Amino acid sequence: MGTSGRHASHVRTRCWAYIGGIGILLICWLAVIAGKAVGRASLARRAAQSLAEQTEGSRNLVLRNRRGIEVHLLRTGASIQKLLLPDRNGKFADVVLGFDEEVAYSDGRSPYFGAIVGRVANRIANASFELDSATYRLATNERGMPGSLHGGRRGFDKVRWNAARVAPCASERRQGAKCRRGDEISMRYQSAAGEEGYPGTLDVEVTYTLTDADELIQTIRATTDAPTIINLAQHSYFNLGGHASGEVLGHELTMPRSTHMLPIDAHRIPTGQLAPVRGTAFDFTSTAELGARISNVDGPGWTAGFDHCFVLHGRGPAALTKPGTQWWPRTPRPAITLRDPASGRSMAIATNAPGVQLYTSNFLDGSLAGKGGARYPKYAGVCLETQNFPDAIHHLPTADRGGFPSPVLRPGETYLHTTIYTFSVDRLSGAVTDR
Known about the structure:
Layout: H1 3-58, E1 61-64, E2 70-74, E3 79-86, E4 92-94, E5 116-117, E6 123-124, E7 128-131, E8 134-137, E9 148-149, E10 162-166, H2 170-174, E11 183-191, E12 202-210, E13 215-224, E14 228-229, E15 233-234, E16 252-254, E17 260-262, E18 275-276, E19 288-289, H3 290-293, E20 307-311, E21 333-339, E22 345-351, E23 355-359, E24 383-387, E25 408-409, E26 415-425
Antiparallel strand pairs: 1-2, 2-3, 3-4, 5-15, 6-9, 7-8, 10-11, 11-12, 12-13, 13-26, 14-25, 16-19, 16-21, 17-18, 17-20, 20-23, 21-22, 22-26, 23-24
Transmembrane segments: 16-38
GO molecular function: aldose 1-epimerase activity; carbohydrate binding
Protein name: Aldose 1-epimerase
């Protein structure tokens, strides 16, 4: 090959190398662009997933049954935000007070609407208690009162619970057994040792089950890694006429086996005594309208209203236990019926808890803007909070006197509190489809 040929070959080689280099650079550049695009897509997917998780976190978790009843839950406070029930004409209404936006349940506006309250529901005298020779100080968070209310400033009602939908009857089906459970959601929360002043790390699970028998079953379980105290309650404000229908004074209440109630002192704390209800405004052993009795009941800081605990299951004076005994039933027993004659809606409550706090929303005053902008006046709802007796840690039994059922939970023990709400109507004609 001549000089010119070798030169031409060399030029071609360099050109191809140059072109190849450009090609490699182009490929690399395209790869970088593609990588960035993939990265952006991945980031976009992650952002979308995060947004979806946030949206799902703020969206209601809904239980439904075949008759159209719905229970809307929130992760904040493991709260019941909506409860849709038909009336005698098949028209559905939301029968619990609450807010449209979830943030209102945690920012201090909510008077515990629909929430699980704890670690200790109700009140603890002087915001302190002793357990195993140690003294624990709690927050004083009830205006004008020296006690601690519903677990403190940031109780279980304001924290975020983890939620999961449960496959109904999975274990029963594996065993070939029948099961009545329906749509089911489980909520979990771990309360760290020292949270709001309480000892022990507490693991809590609340399961809500809606059956086709029109039952809402609430099961609360808890365990601890160190001795602590516990008393959890569901704090829904019920108005069976509809959450925006006004007062509940026309609702009828029946507690046929609640022959005794717990008197309270000037700080809204039980005195440790039990009082018979017969012949008093507290006698709901026969059906009575709330409004027929309410004007005869005043309390510390309010006039004409109930905020008192009643003894359930016919225990009466025997509710004061001896040391080392615990009489909580393992299974729920029928205890309470609430009925709205105007709509025909009724709610029967069965529970294994020893008591129920009857609260007639004495401190609502119309200033709260609830769902759909509804204003909730005094008596807009009634709470029926199944629970242990309030301030039980200060009224434990001794060798010479009976006391309240113990609220103490120790490692190896399981706290179990089950309440069943069964919904019905006086008469239902035709399909229930009108919302």
